[in-house]
Design a protein that fits this description.
- By secondary structure, the chain is mainly alpha-helical.
- It folds into 2 domains: 7-155, no CATH class; 161-225, Alpha-Beta Plaits (2-Layer Sandwich).
- 56% of the residues lie in helices and 4% in strands.
- The protein contains 14 helices and 2 strands, in the order H-H-H-H-H-H-H-H-H-H-H-E-H-H-E-H.
- A two-stranded antiparallel sheet has the order 1-2.
- Helix 7 crosses helix 11.
- The longest helix has 20 residues, at 7-26.
- The chain is globular and about 55 Å long.
Length: 226
């Protein structure tokens, strides 16, 4: 039986496509969108990476193409993932010390690539990450994006996010398997992970519908007592 496409993922695709077209044809600067959305990070996490970033969108589409072509998929085990995901924070730390890795400025370089303004070496690196997207979900975002690392650090304070109703969960682990940022959603009551990009792929994939985008449990419980 063919799986139904969830409306939220269709909406996300349209938003991503809209921003990509705005960048390609109207010269829209993604930094503007990043700055606009930055105040919302404390409320609901990193929506820029999951809904706006053109490089993130391109990697999503390459992953979709890889699945369509039935190419082999690789997923880093959680034991190794928790260490590898620290790479982007290490790069961000170096960046704050003014040790610049210009080739790792993904969204910026991707926009220059679209406009034909990027040097050959940097172009090759971005294209390499896109090709890796055929086999791995969001390789650049997971391990190299300094912009995502900066926003992710603030997002751990979010009060709205992915909540898992444990009493309804069947323990199938589908949410964790589908997460493009390789977050262990299945073992979280409320996802506060700095790598969470708010794409809601896990919510769409859950067969028990026990995941939702809502207030963190403690705040919700406090609201009910009042």
């Amino acid at each position: 039986m063919r799986k139904k496409i969830k409306w939220v993922q269709v909406l996300r695709f349209l938003v991503q496509l809209g921003f990509l077209c705005a960048m390609a044809f109207a010269g829209f600067n993604t930094k503007i969108a990043s700055d606009w959305l930055f105040p919302t990070i404390l409320l609901a996490g990193v929506f820029f990476c999951g809904w706006v970033c053109p490089l993130g969108a391109a990697q999503d589409w390459m992953s979709f193409l890889g699945r369509l072509l039935k190419l082999p998929r690789f997923r880093v085990p959680q034991g190794l993932q928790r260490y590898l995901q620290l790479c982007r924070y290490a790069f961000y730390a170096l960046l704050t010390m003014e040790i610049t890795f210009s080739l790792l400025k993904g969204p910026y370089n991707f926009s220059k690539l679209v406009h034909g303004e990027l040097l050959t070496l940097a172009s090759g690196i971005i294209v390499l990450f896109l090709l890796l997207g055929l086999f791995i979900d969001r390789p650049f975002c997971n391990y190299f994006c300094t912009g995502g690392a900066r926003q992710g650090l603030f997002s751990v304070l979010r009060i709205v996010g992915i909540r898992r109703r444990t009493e309804h969960c069947g323990g199938c682990g589908t949410c964790s398997k589908k997460c493009p940022m390789n977050i262990d959603v299945a073992n979280s009551e409320f996802v506060r992970h700095p790598n969470c990009i708010g794409c809601m792929t896990c919510v769409s994939a859950c067969p028990k519908k026990c995941l939702s985008f809502s207030l963190m449990p403690k705040l919700k419980a406090a609201g009910k007592k009042k």
